[in-house]
Amino acid sequence: MDLYAPSLMTPDGWIDGCLLTIGADGTIQALAPTDRPPPGAQRVSGPVLPGMPNLHSHAFQRAMAGLTERWGSPTDSFWTWRDLMYRFVERLGPEEVGTIARQLYIECLKGGYTAVAEFHYLHNAPDGASYDDPAEISHHILSAALETGIALTHLPVLYAYGGFGEIPLGDAQRRFRGDPERILRIGEWAAAQAATAPAITVGAAAHSLRAAPPALIRELQTGLHARNPGAPIHIHIAEQVKEVEDCLFWSGKRPVALLGEELDLDRHWCLVHATHLDEAETDIIAASGAVAGLCPTTEANLGDGLFPLPRFQGQNGVFGVGSDSHVCRDAAEELRLLEYGQRLQLRARNIAASESDQATGAALWRRAATGGARACGTPTGGLAVGKRADLIVLDGSHTDLTARSGDAIADTLVFGGSKGLVRDVMVAGAWVVRDGRHALEEETAAAYSTVLKSVLD
Q1: CATH number reported for the structural domain that contains residue 422 in this entry
Q2: Which positions are catalytic?
Q3: What backbone phi and psi angles, to 5 degrees, belong to 218?
Q4: What distance separates the 2 farthest-apart alpha carbons in the chain?
Q5: Which pLDDT tens digit goes with each residue over 12-24?
C-alpha cells in the first residue's frame, strides 16, 4: 500500500509531502519525501502522526465513569473509590466485560490511541470460584481487541494478597485471586492466540507490592522471560501516600526503592503511577530504563497526586500515558493534563519542553508514543522504516489547524482542546476508523447500553 500524506511527523521532525510504503505485514517499508505521489497512492486528508499507545487500562472500569462522583464522607479518597469498584465488579460476567471492552476500544481508537495494554486482574467468577478455563475472561478481552482492530498488549495480573505482609485476600478481592503458575498459564493461552494475530502482544503484571511480594513477582518474571525474554512486565507502584507508609512500616523501605533492590528493573518494566517518589527513587526508575506509566486523568480523578516530571526528564527518564479507569479516552487530553498539572504545581509554563525540544505538545506526543511502545513491547512509537504502521490522520480542514505546520500541529492537537481532530486511524496497516467513524460503533454502543442498564438495574 502506498499512502501519501501532506505532512508527517517522524522521530526526527516533520516531512512535508511524504509517501509511505506499507507492506502486507503492516510495517512501514519506505518513507519518501515527494510532492508528486504515484498514481494509485491513497491520499489522506490531513497531517499524519504516530498513533499513541495506551499503556494502562482496566477495561471494565469504563462502565463506572461518572458513577463515583458523589460525596460519601469528609475523607473521600482512592480507598473509598476502591470500595465502590469492588461492589461494581461483582455484577460483571465475562460477556459483560467483553462488551464493555469493545465499547472502550472503539472510543480509544477514535481518541488517538492505536494500542492498549490491558492490565487484566479480573480472573474469577463473582463468587470467587475459578472458571473451568482460567483464561475465560481473557478470551473476551482478546476478542474485543480483534473485533475492533486495536492492537493489544495483554497483561494477566498476579494478585495474591490483600495487603503488605501477606494479608489474606478479602471477600471483595476474590475475583482477582491468582498465583504465578496460573497467571503464566493465562499468558501461554494468550500467546498461542497472538501467534496468528500480529497486533497482539503478551506480557504479565503484578498488581502491586501489597498484592504480590517481591519473591512472587520474581517467580512471575522468571517464568515470563523464560518464554519470551522481551515480554513486558507492569506493576502499580507508589500511587498513594498510604501505600508508601504501609510499605515503609512493613519493609523499612519505600516501594520503588524496595522494588529496585529486590528485582532487576530494566526497559521491559513499566511502573504505573509512581506518583509519590523521593529523588532517589525517581533516579532509580530513570536509570533503569523502565517506563513511568502516567495516567493523569485517573490520577486527578482519584486524588493521587502529581508525578515529578521535571527531575525525571532531567535524568532522561522514559514515560508514556494510559487512560486507566477511563474517565477520559482521549490521548491528547491525557497529555494536556500531564503538562497542566506540572504548570499548576510549579507556577510555570512549558514544563515538558526544553531548549533542544521547544514545542511542548510535540515533545509530549513523541516521548509518550516512544515510551508507550516500549511499555507495550511493540515495534511502534514513531513513523519510521521497520516500525508497524500505527498512525492517526488529523482533519486537515478543521479550523484549529488553519495555517499550522510542523510542531504547531501537535501543539494544537494537545493544547487546542477541540474534539474531533482525529479523522482516520490505522493499526498494523489496516484502517480501523475512517472519517471519524468505526464500522462497529452503532451495534457496539447498543450492546453496551443494554449491558449497562442490566448491570445498574
Answers
A1: 2.30.40.10
A2: 273, 324
A3: -65, -40
A4: 68
A5: 999 999 999 999 9
